[in-house]
Design goal:
mainly alpha
């Protein structure tokens, strides 16, 4: 006899509650566990370079992975309410000023990665979404990364996380509005406009309703897919951060990325553009750099450039955008990130 839908929902709910309780119990004692394992079990000397690096890794690896699992599960549930099809329906026909704001906010909760940039762009344009509004979404989705937001909150508190969220949204809104005013539609490849309106954004199209058991299942599936894909990069990022934490002299990072060097913010952005890394893997490096005296705005500018202006994304977007539009897009966003870096350094 197969279990009923109600019983399956109850089982999944109980499993989630039990999992959260175990998660919280272990998370609370991570610092003690890291110190005990590093010094009592491994026998490494307190204050040594190697001891500091190993303790950093033993503490941060489970911490970041646990936060990542929790965030991805929650976002997986939220995204069942904001599918790409529904997002296109919400944005189609919006005037630009309202559309830029709505697109920027939707970009933080809808499924997006560099590999989906082309189909999303085509879907938005052919659904009648203005080009500037489309860019607000494309900027916000990778830049205001939900994983980075929650990890920043867990590591640095609500002020830093709130500034990251607020300024990231402002960049997406203003940059999209500026790009819309420049009338750059002629620099979109002509074949994009020849695709017609997709069936899933046709008038009256409905997105199937989901039960809560389906939404919980979607959260679990998201954990398996996303965490399974990025965990190795997360651990590599933490390993790099551990090396910086234990072996890099504080004066070196303070002189290179400190508040006193006015050129450090644009340099950080230029260094970040050619790179490509998952947000979860870059956050531990951010934390290690800050611990060595780097300025918060400079480091966050580097992080936002890596996440929001990756070279792979530019290569992918070349399928639908001409080089001049890609260069304009990157220039406007890079300028916004530099401004955010200076604001962070000034405020905090």
């Amino acid at each position: 006899m197969k279990p009923s839908v109600t019983s399956l929902s109850s089982i999944r709910l109980c499993a989630v509650v039990f999992g959260l309780a175990v998660w919280w119990l272990f998370y609370r004692h991570l610092a003690e566990f890291a110190g005990w394992l590093t010094h009592a079990v491994f026998g490494l000397e307190r204050g040594s370079h190697l001891g500091a690096s190993v303790e950093f890794f033993v503490f941060e690896a489970p911490k970041v992975m646990m936060l990542l699992v929790l965030v991805v599960f929650g976002v997986g549930i939220v995204r069942t309410f904001f599918t790409p099809e529904r997002t296109r329906q919400l944005l189609a026909g919006r005037r630009e000023s309202v559309g830029n704001v709505l697109a920027a906010f939707l970009g933080t909760v809808t499924p997006f990665c560099s590999c989906s940039a082309v189909p999303l762009f085509i879907g938005f344009v052919t659904a009648g979404v203005p080009l500037g509004v489309t860019f607000s979404f494309l900027i916000s989705a990778p830049m205001v990364n939900e994983v980075a937001l929650v990890l920043l909150f867990g590591m640095f508190g609500w002020k830093v996380a709130g500034l990251y969220l607020g300024l990231g949204l402002i960049i997406a809104i203003i940059a999209g509005w500026i790009l819309g005013r420049l009338r750059l539609e002629k620099y979109v490849e002509s074949w994009v406009y020849e695709n017609g309106t997709p069936a899933d954004v046709a008038e009256g199209a409905e997105v199937p309703a989901l039960r809560w058991s389906d939404r919980l299942q979607a959260g679990m599936v998201a954990v398996g897919e996303i965490v399974g894909r990025v965990w190795i990069y997360v651990l590599l990022g933490i390993a790099v951060g551990a090396g910086i934490h234990g072996f890099v002299p504080e004066n070196f990072m303070a002189s290179l990325m400190g508040r006193g060097a006015w050129w450090s913010v644009p340099l950080a952005v230029l260094l970040g553009v050619p790179m490509y890394a998952n947000a979860a893997s870059i956050i531990p490096i951010v934390q290690a750099l800050l611990g060595k005296g780097a300025a918060l705005g400079t480091v966050l500018a580097f992080m936002m450039a890596v996440i929001g202006l990756s070279l792979p994304e530019a290569i992918i977007l070349r399928q639908v955008l001409k080089p001049r539009l890609i260069a304009t897009f990157f220039g406007v966003v890079a300028g916004g990130i530099v401004l955010v870096g200076y604001i962070f350094n000034f405020v905090l």
